[in-house]
Design brief:
Elements: H1 3-24, H2 28-42, E1 48-54, E2 60-65, H3 68-80, H4 84-89, E3 94-97, H5 109-115, E4 120-128, E5 131-140, H6 148-195, H7 199-213, H8 217-227
Antiparallel strand pairs: 1-2, 1-5, 3-4, 4-5
Length: about 240
């Protein structure tokens, strides 16, 4: 086997191992932590990695990072509204700033990053099913640290990470929905027993408490389960 073939096999095995770790994570946050730890060691040239998540109303925040300075560098991007990460969450899939000392794309962010010890950045958009999740960001402490090979490895890595993060998010949503349904059912049972109501009448009691107090139905159920108190509502 030639050197190129050996490298391809090594990468394939590395990504297979990575996916095992990502799918073994039991929450979105643990998945994000696995992503940044693996990215920092898998993408040539990187000394640290972070994941920026896209939130409501266009807000971006750093959800996981391998080093404290990552959050500081990211904060500069968010405040200035420019930089590889912001661009990846926005219009471009891959953004490379391989020498932030001389980069002209982001004239305000470059000096800020250098002052924090980062001389190069490489960012990839994270997306699944057409939805932008955020960006995977790699950081280097020297100019020209990232190569075409870094970009190729990072692109594959980001694709795998996107799927894993989206799956973890869906699993958490499903788990929360099942928990909510179970709590509402238990609360209905308590109301039925205490007030000798049918299940439909008991559910209507919960619904009216929710409306009168302007709180979600699941919160009403949670309070009944954990306090034992049922706010008085006329039938």
């Amino acid at each position: 086997m030639n050197a190129q073939g050996a490298e391809g096999e090594r990468l394939a095995l590395g990504f297979a191992h990575l996916m095992e770790e990502l799918w073994a994570a039991d929450s979105e946050q643990s998945t994000l932590l696995s992503v940044v730890k693996a990215a920092a060691t898998s993408v040539p040239g990187a000394i640290a990695a972070g994941v920026s998540m896209r939130r409501a109303r266009g807000r971006i925040d750093t959800a996981a990072a391998t080093a404290a300075f990552v959050s500081e560098v990211d904060r500069a991007q968010y405040e200035l509204r420019e930089g590889p990460c912001v661009a990846s969450v926005g219009d471009n899939l891959v953004n490379l700033a391989n020498d932030l000392r001389t980069d002209t794309q982001w004239p305000r962010f470059g000096p800020a990053a250098v002052s924090l010890g980062v001389d190069a950045m490489l960012s990839f958009r994270l997306s699944a099913r057409g939805e932008v999740i955020g960006a995977l960001n790699l950081y280097a402490d020297r100019p020209l640290a990232f190569t075409e090979h870094s970009c190729a490895v990072g692109t594959i890595f980001a694709a795998h990470a996107s799927v894993a993060i989206a799956a973890a998010r869906r699993a958490e949503t499903l788990t929360e929905a099942l928990k909510t349904r179970s709590e509402i059912s238990e609360a209905v049972g308590i109301v039925m027993e205490r007030h000798r109501l049918t299940s439909e009448e008991a559910f209507e009691v919960l619904r009216r408490i929710s409306q009168n107090r302007n709180i979600k139905l699941r919160e009403v159920a949670h309070r009944i389960l954990y306090t034992g108190e049922i706010p008085g509502v006329q039938r």
